[in-house]
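COURSE: Structural Biology Practicum
ASSIGNMENT: Worksheet 4, Part C
STUDENT ID: 0417
INSTRUCTIONS: Below are two proteins. For each, the amino acid sequence is given first, followed by its structure token string. Answer the questions at the end about the second protein only.

PROTEIN I
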Amino acid sequence: MDIQAVRIEIPDDCNLVLGQAHFIKTAEDLYEIIATTIPQAQFGLAFSEASGPCLLRTEGNDSQLIDTCVSYLQALEQDMCSCILLKNAFPITY
């Protein structure tokens, strides 16, 4: 096993959420949760699949944050992993 450290620099005024899931619809589910509970938030998210062509699914409303999430997951090289970057996400309503 080769263990490597990966530096992740979080953009200014953002919060980072790294997660793991086993469901291909995770990206769409996370998008729906964020968009409906934090409508003012700018966010990007990416999810790495583990089957077939192992795609990176992306969602969000800020292309720069989406691209940053994609770069993080590419650097981590892990499947079934999600990355969310949130900006202007407070207060959270539920």
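PROTEIN II
(use this one for the questions)
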Amino acid sequence: MTTDLPAAYQFGQFTLVPTERRLVCDGKVVPLTPKVFDTLVLLVKNPGRLIEKEELLRALWPHSVVEEVALAHNVSQLRKALGDPAEDPKFVGEIASERYR
């Protein structure tokens, strides 16, 4: 069986291996909870594309109703794991929209 997906994604000093559910930084595994890992995979598979909050919520919790705070928590934990502060992000950007205020 062939697949069009790469075996691994490289960004900065990180290597993401979705099939092994593994994120590695400088040779060390970075621990992530399952939902935070899924958040990262979704973002990495869509580089440069704006993914709206509703799309993220549907993709990460397809059969559940969750509060937006759950997504905010995932993004916060992801930024912490990547060393990517919200004030000066390198990997996980965010665009404020009047629609969400």
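ANSWER KEY EXCERPT:
Q1: Residues 68-82 form the longest helix (15 residues).
Q2: The mean pLDDT is 86.
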